Amino acid sequence: MDVNRGDRVTHISSFGTPSLGLAEYRKEHMPPGDPSWKETYIGSDRTISLVQTAKGRVIRLEHDVSTPHPYSRINSLGGTRGVFEDYPERIYIEPDHTNDEWGDFGKYAAEFDHWLWKEHANPPAATAAWTTS
C-alpha cells in the first residue's frame, strides 16, 4: 500500500472493548491463590483501528488475543477491480470472476504479488560461508 514509500498515515481512530475475557477465564479456571489473581487487566479484549492515509486509503486493523475464537489469519485487500484475501489465498477480480466465486491467486501472482514476496519468498540455500564451526 506504499505506506512510508509514497503514502503516509494521516488519521488513526481506535476503539476497544472492555477488558473482561481474561478475568472471566481466571474466575472459571484458576484456583484461589494463583498469582494471576494479583493481576489487573486493563487492555481491551478486542481493539479495532481505522487508519487513513494521505492518498485516501483506509486500513482496518483488529487485535484480539484474549477472547475465545478459532484461529484465523485473514488478511484482506480490496480495490476498484476486486479483492484479495490471504490464508487461504484467494482473489476476485472483475470481469474475470463471476457468480460471487473466488478465483485461484496463483494465476495472478506474477502480476499482483508484492515485490518483497517475489524477491525473498524462496531465499537461496545457505553457503559454507554462512555456517559456523
UniProtKB/TrEMBL annotation:
Residues 1-103 form the Glycosyl hydrolase 109 C-terminal domain. Keywords: Hydrolase. One of its GO terms (molecular function) is hydrolase activity. This is Glycosyl hydrolase. InterPro entries: Glyco_hydro_109_C (IPR049303). Pfam families: Glyco_hydro_109_C. Gene3D superfamilies: Dihydrodipicolinate Reductase, domain 2 (3.30.360.10).
